Amino acid sequence: MPDTARSFQVSRYVGLALDPIHVGTGGSRLGRVDLTIVRDPVTRVPKIPGSSLAGVLRAYAAMAQQDKHPNRQVNGKQKPYYPDCAGQGQPKQDGTGGHCGQPDCPICTVFGFARGDAGGFAGLAAFSDAHVLLFPVATREGPVWVTCPDSLRDIIGQPVEADGEAIYREVDGSPLNLGWLMLPVKKLGVWDSITQALKARGVTEEITRALAVVSDKLFSHVVNSNLEVRTSVSIDPGTGAAEEGALFTYEAIPRGTVLSWTVTCRDPKHFRIGNQAVTAVRSPEEVHGVVRRASTYLEHLGIGGMGTRGMGRLRVLQGGAQHIGEAL
Length: 328
Fold this sequence. Notes:
The chain is an alpha+beta fold.
C-alpha cells in the first residue's frame, strides 16, 4: 500500500535490560519487599507501563531536539525544547516553562501537549506496556532465558504448545532446575521458528542457545521467584552506622531480561492543531523517527527509579525495523 494511503503504523520494539529496572508502584508492601514493581493485573508478571515509556522518551526526544536546535524562539521569545516541552506542560507562576503546543514542534505533536483551559493534543505516538519476553534464571547449567506461549504469540505468529509442569527445549534432556524448581525437560516441535523469530528481532545467539519454554501458568511463578531484591539503609551521620528503622528492600526486573513493546504512529495529515496542519512531522514514518531517535537514549539514561543505584539502562535491540501493522 502506498505511503499516502497509510493511516497508522505499528512497530515492535525489543530491548535488553543492561541493569536491573525498577518501575515502582508507589511504595506498597508485598511480603518481605517494601518497594514493589508494577505487575500485570492478570498474569502477575512484572512489566514497564506504556506511560513510563512515553514519559521518559518524551524527555529524551526533547533533549535530542534541543541539542539540534539550541536557539529556538516562539513568538519572538526564547522557548527551549528541553525542558519546556518535556515536562507536564503547565507554565510556572513567572510564565516560564510549559509546552509550546506549536504545530511545528516535533515533541508536542508526537507526544501531545496540555494547555490548561485552552485544551491540548493527545499526540501522534501511542505506547503499549513493555512485557517480559525472555527472563534470565540461574540453573546448574548456567543462565537460561525462560519464556512462555503467551509471550511468544505476537513474536512468531503461530501457537506454541507448552502445557504442564515441564521445561521445553530443543531436545529432550535431564531434569533442569529453574531457581528452586526442578522440572523434566521435553522437546518442543516449533523450536526453529522461535529461535529464528527471536534472532530476527535482534536477540543474540548467546541468549537463543540458552532458551527454555514453560507454560503460561508456570512462567509467572518462575519470574516472581527470581526477581532481583536489594536492601538499602540510611547511614546515621552521627554514628556512621545504619540508622534505626531506615532499612528497606526493593525489587527489580533483573539484568539480562528481554522486553517487548509496540509503538503506534498515526498519520499527521488527519490531525490539526488550532486549525493549522501539523508541519513538524508529515507521515507515520516521521512520527516513528522521533520516537526511534529518543529510544537510543535509554541505553545511557535508562528508565524507572533507583538510577543512582545502578538501575535502569535498557538497550533497544530492534526499534521498528519490521512493522507489524500498517493502514486500514
